[in-house]
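Researcher: I'd like a structural prediction for the single chain below. Treat it as a standalone chain; there are no partners to consider.
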Amino acid sequence: MVSNAQSSPLAGWDAYGMPSRLDLEAARDRTIPDVLPAPGARFSVLFCGINPGLYSAATGWHFARPGNRFWPALHLSGFTGRQLAPREQDLLPGYGLGITNLVARPTAQAAELTRAELEQGGERLAKLVSRHRPAVVAVAGVTAYRTAFGRPRAAAGPQPEVLGVARLWVLPNPSGLNASWTLPRITEAFRELREAVTKVLATCAVFETNTLLECWTISASEPAASGVADDQ
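Model: Treating it as a single chain, here is the predicted structure.
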């Protein structure tokens, strides 16, 4: 496993183990390392957030803010055998999973990002995929995906485009601010992805000479996108 672990940069959490307002403001200057499997290791899904929130930047953990549904949905959909805590993010490569972000700059809300930052994030993501070769890139946020990749009509679910060797998938933004998506709905979107990945990897195991993208074509015809357009 590629070791991207870092201890929390916070030395002065409050009495409840929470970063203070000053801690959060200081986190605007921090970034979070990607969590990635070692080169050559199994890499099924690269989850791509929009950008770190201040809470995540303060702790050094992806999707760390209380109320974010990423870790519960990951478990409930079957990707992990138990619900991991954000501080356990470096266990993800053992499941063939990784995490990155479109934009490294932390903000209080994703709406603070510029179009240029998101577009540049899409270009950076393509380079990351070329180096690490995940089977699927799952972007957690429809609106951010539309901007980053110039697909204004994209909806949640599998996308007709590919990103290098990887299939593209769009998931709902799991932030607690995205109130239109409940945990059961988010979990179902994650489960759809997991089932598709399981099926295509099984197909590749049978057709050993086929590339991952060929295996997607063999395992099923292009599935229709879910058509949901109310994500953030």
